[in-house]
# Entry
Amino acid sequence: MSSAVTLQDATGHMAHDAHHEHHHHETFITKYVFSQDHKTIAKQFLITGIIWAIIGGLFSVIFRLQLGYPDQTFPFLEDFLGHWAKGGKLNPEFYYALVTMHGTVLVFFVLTAGLSGTFANFLIPLQVGARDMASPMLNMLSYWFFFLASIIMVASLFVQTGPASGGWTVYPPLSALGDASMGSKIGMDLWLVGMAMFIVSSLLGGLNYITTILNMRTKGMSMTRMPLTIWALFFTAILGVLSFPVLLSGAILLLFDRNLGTSFYLSDIVVAGKILPNEGGSAILFQHLFWFLGHPEVYIILLPAMGMSSEILSVNSRKPIFGYMAMVGSMFAIAILAFLVWAHHMFVTGLNPFLGSVFVLLTLLIAVPSAIKVFNWLTTLWRGNIRFTPAMLFAIGFVSLFISGGLTGIFLGNSALDIHLHDTYFVIAHFHIVMGVASFFGMFAGVYHWFPKMYGRYLNNTLAYIHFWVTIIGAYLIFWPMHYEGLAGMPRRYYDFSNWESFKMFGGLNEFISLVSMIVFAAQLLFVFNFFHSIWKGRKVRDLNPWGSNTLEWTTPLKPGHGNWPGEIPEVHRWPYDYGKDGRDFIPQTEPVGKDESTGH
Amino acid sequence: MKDLFLIAIVIMIFLVIFQIAKASEYVSVLKGEEKTRKQNNRINGFMLISFLVLGLIGAWYCNELYFGKTLFPQGSASLEGQKIDQMLYITIAVTGVVFVITQVLLFWFAYKYQEKEGKKAFFFPHNNKLELLWTTVPAIFLTVLVVFGLKYWFKITSEAPKDAIVVEITGHQFAWDMRYPGKDGVLGKKHYKLYNSPLGNTLGVDFEDPESWDDLHTSEMHLPVGKPVKLVIHAQDVIHDVGLSHFRMKMDAVPGIPTTMWFTPIYTTEEMRAKTGNPNFSYEISCDQMCGKGHFSMRGIIIVEKEEDYKKWLASQTPEYFTLYPDKNPKKELPATDTSAAAKPLAAVMPQTK
# Structure
């Protein structure tokens, strides 16, 4: 089957498709607002995620001003923040609110909803060969619950006592007692309700993704012929569905403690001179419930980035991904282990040392599947014919960051070392590199790679290259030196270090980091601009399969309508990684296996 | 005005970058998109290998600049912390080697195998031997790390030696309070509901219990050098954390659930001042668990001194029982020397924010 024929077929179908849409009389509301088309829902998640990312990033720029320049005032802050920045000096209470909301927004609203919400919705039906999700209605609700959660979370920024300020982990009793902190008043209730709505959204989405992958694959698409993106999104959805309900239960108990006088997490407390009646609760219980989600959450964020990077590395190396089954197996192992390591966040809570040792063992075990993945990615590049598209650069950057951040996990997972490093800047450096920036790189790689399919246009390459280079250099400049601060024991979540004999020598470094973080933030705005500009003004895509990819999404028309394929859904005859086989550049999944084809896979 | 100017400059820079980007798109159409793509490929390939080289140099330079500022060149100030330092060096060695190898391979492969005219990629879908190799080698290294790590972990978290000095430390928003058991070596009972009864009993000590009568309540911690010390850790309101970075120790303070940790200081504060060359050096207790708006100012001080100085200091303290019930004090004509912590109500210890 030559590509010319495919193109002709598709244009023929496109005309048919346009006619088809016309027939349904879609209104603006059903097409763009309450849409049940998975592609539109994906774009809704992506754009909401981008807005959240700008807000969350801005929070970090503001609190970095305080950290980098603790003796200076910034009068313009008072214009924006009012009494939270009297005289241009950030109030400590609000500093902690910013830190808390930065974490909440980026972990949940951007890297969970914005990442899996976008790419699970967009890629699952297109890559497994389905017309839509198993339940388009639930899928639509999933977005609108996310939207509701967003509204509540944004609202919490504007209440008089400020948003939640106890850290994104919201440990009680701090988060349970309004007397302990301003942010633990109404802001905390809104945080909990917002998160409950978010969890509903995540569960509706996750159940849909799992069902679609299991039941709606096209003819010939066996599980082992699925692209690694789909495997990654599948494990992500399973992790979410099994762990988010535990956070929900933790959050509900916290709401009870806050408002109904229960004592799940409270015991023996004197706060602001008041003796509380609560006895017999355990503050540590919440940490178990939180981290039972919290740790799988790390992989909920990371797995989609791994899957997309695997796909993009293979396509642009013009080589099959090395060790497909090992890649699937290692993701499976990571998914299982993700549930068995949560207490490594709690080594210094007074946890039984023997229990701690079990968690050390299981935690360091994760390094094995992670190492397999890294070496497989490296071997995928080896002897390839590599094209550095912007997506490919971000995928390579992802691998680099995953290595850098993953290795420091070996320090923190080892409980003896964790005693010293726990809750220091070392932890900040570790998880920002491996979970934050690396996942963002996976997400950027995905956006650059699939933007032509989303909008029928390309993003501007020059801006993309500038974006990549500023971001990767900046990310290392920001987070690499933080390891040294952490080794010196410099604690996280400090508003000001200047009164500490042990930590104040890093003042100059903190200023440097703040400066770089502002430049990196500006580079992200460049990406946002490129994104929105290119939706309408980007270079048009003329080739149905611009990257020479094997997967099914590139067999759809340039701008697929609701239903994806105008005619029959194509049948699949092979795995998606036949690149460079038998001297051919690529062999799409839809091409039947030839008689004299070698049996490579 | 200055702000507006700054914003204008940023917008200008954005516009310039955007115009260049737009122009480059037209140029690529004129030159032929395929040709431009190949040129970009070469540029980015070169950038990747340069990034590797400059990045490795940068990592070395960063180490030159900052390693001296971490606590490791001065060594651990506790016997047990030395094991943590050792563990750290082993881990840095293992992960450092892996880091350099993998990053070099990543960027070097990307550079070396960039697209070239007429080159064909090598179809290499899997190889069981290789995959087995990089499953077992990391597993072996990790086993080594786990074995060392757990050996030290069990040592550090074991029961404190019998002869350890016991000090109770209590965290509250936003300060630390210490309690010493006095001559009988036993801390008197506490109950949180006894808070402030009588007024000033901020730790909720049960003064019905005779064992509490000789207990000392102080705001600074004094320790003798060379003797193991066991800290009994409490929190009154929210979770705090006793962070002792020089001793490489850390333990949460949880309301309702007392925790413990022990260590052996090996240098006095004076010795550390000489060792670090910093005349202002002191062992600081940092709160390492987010505890509210004054979290960053929750600073405590430990003074490690020679045994005789420590004994002298202990003898100079008045038991809290006598400061709260002055009529019971047999030596009540003597002025109390340290009442600072006991006399402060909770609200007075709130932090001063600049």
Residues 1-23 of chain A have pLDDT under 50 and may be disordered. The domain at 3-583 of chain A is CATH 1.20.210.10 (Cytochrome C Oxidase; Chain A).
